[in-house]
Amino acid sequence: MPNFSSKQLAVFGLIAIIGFGFFLRTYHFSDWLHFELDQARDVRVIDTALDGSATDLPLLGPKAGGTFLRLAPGFYYLEYVSALVFGRLPAGMAGFVAVFSILAIPLFYLFLRRYFSEKLALGLTLLFAVSEYFVMYGRFAWNPNVLPFFVLLGFYALLRAVDHNETKRGLWFLVSVFALIFATHFHFLAFLALPIVLAAFLIIRRPKFSWKIWLGALAVAFVLYLPMALNEKEAGFANTEEFLQAITKKSSKSDHTLIEKAIRNVSEHALYGMVVTTGFEGGTFPAIVIPGKNERVGWACDSRCDKGKWYGVAAVLIFGAGLLSLVWFWWREKERRPSDFLLLCGIWFAVTFGLFLPLAYDIAPRFFLLSGSLFFILLGLLLKALKNFFGERKIGRQIIFGIILLLAVSNLYFLKARFEELSRADTEAVDSAPDRILKEHIRVTLKQQNIIVDFFERRHRDTGYPVYMFSEPQHRRALKYLIERRGIENAVLGFDGIYRQGVYYLILRAQSDLEDALKKYRVNYTVGETTPFGTLVAIELIPKPEAIIGERQDFSKPKGSDSKAPPRYTWREFFERNATVSKEEEETSLDQLEEKAQDN
């Protein structure tokens, strides 16, 4: 039997972990793809470039959630390359997200090895690879989903850049600057947080680089934000105005006190730490009420909260112990390399926690794509403290192994349950528990949506009539995009009038109150046959004669856009210098494409 060294065994173990992570992120990737409102918006932009050329890509990226502010365009450029490599179907355009999610696994291991032992780093990497949270966000295209890779790359390169034993410190610094600035293209919070983390770490550590390296870093930042700068020049800095408004809006919309926000922020971090590391989504934490004068501190916990409150309390205690471990180990660390790792993690946590504070009552699961890796590091520090407590005794290693195995099995258990729901979504009205990962009300897959579109295509072919369809926004835009790919004339039901030549359908959740949803339609339609599609149903509406306004809709008339977002230009438009564009035409073709599938 070959006698392998511990380093070789670690390599074999890492390869196995990467392989398992690859399987989890690609299993039924296309069939079970999450393809909803934002995904359909983005693929329209990429389709335009694929039909033309790369110069038809935009100078700005997607809108930041809940605002008209647009991010930088890096996500669209990656999605375009992905379509060229993997194909222009929705799964092909999402392929790059899976690739970066898989590459993040060995990168996380390298990052951990800056501090942790080989075995503990492998254990934590295994948990990262099987984390239901990171697996699910690695299985579909959305601008925040590539954050884990680029954040880890930026911080790993930064640690090597300040390592005095590193021979190419300047090159690593440039890699760090590229990765972290490019990561700001993918989410508004990353745009705010990562420059602060980078600047704070550099100010504290004060690394010495040649002026050429500093100039190179500025050049990298300039190139990465050149598209946005060009668009701002043409649009009169409209996106900058949106940025300032977004800052004001996000920081002032809540009327909770600072103490209430701080408590909520801690509980949200703790509960999402439990989700990320275990896959368990049932933890809750009582709402703490800060009273006025001469009143006691109170708390509120309804029946749903009561079921999971002890899990929440345990999560808060573990989260607090992890932070104390971080501070303790950093305070006692004498060597520069591990001290840098702990310092960077501390700054990373402090900055993101501080930015989440004003948003404490509106934290979305995707926010933790920016800092979710930290939960495994805090766990690792707790396990390291446990090992130190037991010393060289075997029981300590056994407990640590048991904890890692238990957490891995927990994630796989919940991931298996989710996969089973996805596999049945097109045939059964699957009842899903509240979702703290993707915030899905029901499971809907791309395979299921294509089956619905197959049904519409048959109805269109049999009758020769356009298809009029209405559904919830997240499904409507995706279905409309898939219908248009088949070349089927279609419109959103209820917004273009009622014509004799047309097939009319509502797509509703199978377990929703169908009768209530149909009430407003009974005035102009007779309710026809209901066709089940698993978690969704298609209900045919037959127009009443008195509601019909014409024989057939004229689809040759172009539709304008009422987008309120700042003007966004493509590279082609910028270089051609369309100086004669009217104010209405400034709402560019790309914005029209984004708004085209919306109902208003």
Give a written overview of the molecule.
The chain is α/β, with parallel strands linked by helices. It has a domain at 446-552. 58% of the residues lie in helices and 6% in strands. The chain is built from 22 helices and seven strands. The chain has helices spanning 6-26, 37-51, 74-86, 90-112, 118-130, 132-137, 147-161, 169-183, 188-205, 211-224, 226-235, 238-252, 258-278, 303-332, 336-356, 373-390, 394-424, 446-463, 473-485, 514-518, 571-576, 589-596; strands at 287-289, 298-300, 467-471, 490-492, 503-509, 525-533, 536-543. The strands form two sheets. A five-stranded mixed sheet has the order 4-3-5-7-6. A two-stranded antiparallel sheet has the order 1-2. Helix 2 runs antiparallel to helix 22 (589-596), helix 5 runs parallel beside helix 17 (394-424) and helix 8 (169-183) runs parallel beside helix 10. The chain is globular and about 85 Å long. Residues 578-594 and 596-600 have low confidence and may be disordered.
Could you outline the blueprint of secondary structure elements for this entry?
Blueprint: H1 6-26, H2 37-51, H3 74-86, H4 90-112, H5 118-130, H6 132-137, H7 147-161, H8 169-183, H9 188-205, H10 211-224, H11 226-235, H12 238-252, H13 258-278, E1 287-289, E2 298-300, H14 303-332, H15 336-356, H16 373-390, H17 394-424, H18 446-463, E3 467-471, H19 473-485, E4 490-492, E5 503-509, H20 514-518, E6 525-533, E7 536-543, H21 571-576, H22 589-596
Parallel strand pairs: 3-4, 3-5
Antiparallel strand pairs: 1-2, 5-7, 6-7
Helix pairs in contact: 1-4, 1-5, 2-3, 2-19, 2-22, 3-4, 4-5, 4-7, 5-16, 5-17, 7-8, 8-9, 8-10, 9-15, 13-14, 14-15, 14-16, 16-17, 18-19
